[in-house]
Amino acid sequence: HRHTHMHTHTHAHTHACTHTHAHTHAERHTHAHTCTHTCTEAHTCTHMHRGTHACTHTCTDERTEAHTCAHMHAEAYTHAHTHVHTCTEAHTCTEAHMHAHMHAYTRTDERTEAHTCAHMHAEAYTHAHTH
Fold first, then answer.
1. Which residues does residue 23 pair with via DSSP β-bridges, in sequence order?
2. Residue of 1, 23, 4, 29 whose CA lies nearest to 99
3. Where is this region: Disordered (predicted)?
4. Parent domain of 71
5. Cα–chain-centroid distance for residue 32?
6. Does residue 81 sit in helix, strand or coil?
7. 59 closest CA partner among 95, 22, 97, 28
């Protein structure tokens, strides 16, 4: 049957304006199924930073039955104003879904004007057989 994983997280904080965004996506896949990965990110700030990042990935391979995907998402930003980050991810697969999820979030002292956030999002999932 189909397996759908929906992950949504939103965090808002007030803090000044340097934004660094690194996005690396590595995969290797050989699979007899369709895998769809959708990631939508919205960055809204009360001052001068506005940005939207969206990426959609679809991979299909009808030849074999082993699929490995690796997704790395890293962000670092320093702000002195309100920042809202919303990420919605949807995984829909027609095969068995083994999902590993790791989150690391660090922030500096809330009492300071300069706020540094580091967000690490890593996902790895393997598909093996129909269920």
1. 73
2. 4
3. 1-23
4. 3-127
5. 24
6. coil
7. 28
And the tokens for 29? 């896949």
What does the alpha-carbon distance between residue 103 and residue 108 come to, in Å, rounded to a whole number?
17
How many independent structural domains does the chain possess?
1
Angle at 71 between CA 69 and CA 76, to 5 degrees: 175
DSSP 111: T
Per DSSP, the three-state class of 94 is: coil
Tell me the helices (H) and strands (E) count for the chain, helix number first.
0, 8
Joined tokens for residue 91: 């995984």
* pLDDT-based confidence at residue 40 (cuts at 50, 70, 90): very low
Radius of gyration of the chain (CA): 17
Residue 5: both structure tokens together: 């994983």
Entry pTM: 0.15
Helix (H, G, I), strand (E, B) or coil at 41: strand
d(CA 88, CA 6): 7
